[in-house]
């Protein structure tokens, strides 16, 4: 953790940033695909529940 000292003796602590991972064009992550499928299933379930209630 980085700590800097301001005027007047106040200390500021900054969180360490996570390392960035770059994706190449055309490269897909399995997590992205699962998130998309999960979102579609959630929307379908919500539509079914709304239709069942009404």
Provide an overview of this structure.
- By secondary structure, this protein is of the alpha+beta class.
- The chain has a domain at 29-54.
- Helix content is 44%, strand content 15%.
- It has one helix and two strands.
- The protein has one helix spanning 30-53; strands at 2-5, 11-14.
- The chain has a two-stranded antiparallel sheet.
- Strand 1 and strand 2 form a beta hairpin.
- The longest helix is centred in the C-terminal third of the chain and has 24 residues, at 30-53.
- The chain is elongated.
- The termini are far apart.
Summarize the helices and strands and which ones pair or pack.
Blueprint: E1 2-5, E2 11-14, H1 30-53
Antiparallel strand pairs: 1-2
Structural class: alpha+beta
Gap from first CA to last CA: 54 Å
Q: What portion of the residues fall into strands of 2 or more residues? A: 5-15%
Radius of gyration: 23 Å
Mean pLDDT: 86
Task: Please report the total strand number as a whole number.
Answer: 2
| Low-confidence regions | none
Helix content: 40-55%
Total of helices: 1
Main beta sheet, described? 2 strands, antiparallel
Gross morphology is elongated
In N-to-C order, the SSE pattern is: EEH
- Biggest sheet: strand arrangement: 1-2
InterPro entries: Psb34-like
Protein name: High light inducible protein
Keywords: Membrane, Transmembrane, Transmembrane helix
Organism: Cyanobium gracile (strain ATCC 27147 / PCC 6307)
């Amino acid at each position: 953790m980085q700590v800097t000292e301001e005027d007047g003796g106040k200390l500021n602590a900054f969180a360490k940033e996570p390392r960035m991972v770059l994706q190449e064009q055309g490269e897909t992550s399995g997590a992205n695909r699962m998130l998309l499928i999960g979102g579609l299933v959630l929307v379908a379930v919500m539509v079914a529940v709304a239709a069942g209630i009404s």
